[in-house]
Specification:
There is one protein chain. This protein is α+β, with helices and mostly antiparallel strands. It has five helices and 17 strands. It has an eight-stranded antiparallel beta sheet with strand order 11-10-9-6-5-4-3-17. Strands 1, 2, 12, 13, 14, 15 and 16 form a seven-stranded antiparallel beta sheet that branches. The protein has a two-stranded parallel sheet with strand order 7-8. A hairpin with a 2-residue loop joins strand 10 and strand 11.
Length: 317
């Protein structure tokens, strides 16, 4: 369970809540331009755009949860069980394992338009990272400073959807979310106007009644609607601190407190929330037990080296 958002307020900000019941040793990772990505079924990527994001590093390979590259293109993977289908190798295609997908796109592309072109030749294949780390069923949101798309690898192949909402959660498919949100088009931030007989005395007894019906549960469909409503109605100054704070307030509106969402493996909760200034390459995050916003600037390191930069993150035990 997760929520990803792209938000424009002077600069473009991209980030997500990661909702899981356990961790995988996540850390903030900067991948410089000359770090070699050795791909399982395609040619290695010797040089590429630098990127920053949250990842679990295994065998010196960054398994990114989300990242932004130096040109401002951002991408996040979100849980998509029961719908994600990965395929066999296909001749004439770039056969990419899902755990290689974020570096594949962000390493080569500067915009959603370029990503769409690359996706036409991309086939996501069912190869586990290792016996201990099988593939996760995911779909992805890709955003630049102008637009967003959703990518879903399903039984019928790779589907690409324009995403004017610039929000993504989990199941069902993106087509469902596009239809479902129409059920909430009457929501507003002001008082509600009665549609009944004008002679019946009805009144707004509280502020916020225009948003009655906004879903408050933690299902993916409800979080999609709530995140979109809050993002679309956000008001903040355009200076950096105000924009970043507002972005985290948007994510807070769909965050999961520990103990509210039970899975067979334990309670899911929002392990971390992230926000990257896509214009500046500054990555911000906070964790469940630490509300202090930490920032890491990818431009503070040498982006031409061939090794990873990793920054330890302290999570809830």
């Amino acid at each position: 369970m997760c929520t990803a958002v792209s938000y424009k307020n002077g600069n473009t900000y991209f980030g997500r809540n990661l909702d899981l019941e356990r961790g995988y040793g996540e850390c903030v990772v900067i991948t410089p331009r000359n770090y070699k990505f050795s791909l399982r079924q395609s040619n290695s990527i010797e040089s590429h755009y630098a990127m920053i994001g949250m990842a679990a590093v295994f065998n010196d390979f960054p398994l990114y949860f989300e990242a932004t590259n130096e040109t401002g293109l951002s991408m996040a993977g979100l849980n998509f069980p029961g719908n994600a289908v990965y395929h066999e190798l296909k001749d004439g295609k770039d056969n990419i394992a899902p755990f290689e997908f974020i570096p594949w796109i962000l390493g080569k592309c500067t915009s959603v338009h370029e990503a769409k072109e690359l996706l036409e030749q991309t086939n996501l294949i069912k190869i586990n990272f290792s016996e201990q780390l099988p593939l996760s069923p995911l779909h992805w949101m890709i955003s630049d400073k102008e637009q967003s798309i959703v990518v879903e690898s399903v039984k019928d192949g790779l589907k690409i959807y324009d995403n004017p909402f610039e929000v993504l959660t989990n199941n069902p498919t993106f087509n469902y979310h596009k239809t479902n949100i129409s059920n909430y088009m009457g929501l507003g931030t002001g008082p509600v106007k009665s549609q009944f007989d004008e002679n019946i005395p009805l009144y707004n007894y509280s502020l916020g009644m225009g948003a009655i019906g906004l879903p408050g549960d933690f299902s993916s469909a409800s979080r999609f609607v709530r995140a979109f409503f809050v993002k679309e109605n956000s008001v903040a100054d355009t200076e950096e601190k105000a924009s970043v704070n507002q972005f985290f307030h948007i994510l807070d509106s769909v965050a999961m407190p520990n103990g509210c969402v039970w899975t067979e493996n334990g309670y899911e909760y929002t392990r971390y929330s992230s926000c990257c200034n896509a214009n500046a390459g500054i990555y911000y995050y906070k964790t469940y037990d630490n509300f202090e916003i930490i920032s890491i600037d990818m431009n503070d390191v040498d982006l031409d080296v061939s090794r990873l930069y990793t920054y330890e993150v302290t999570f809830r035990p």
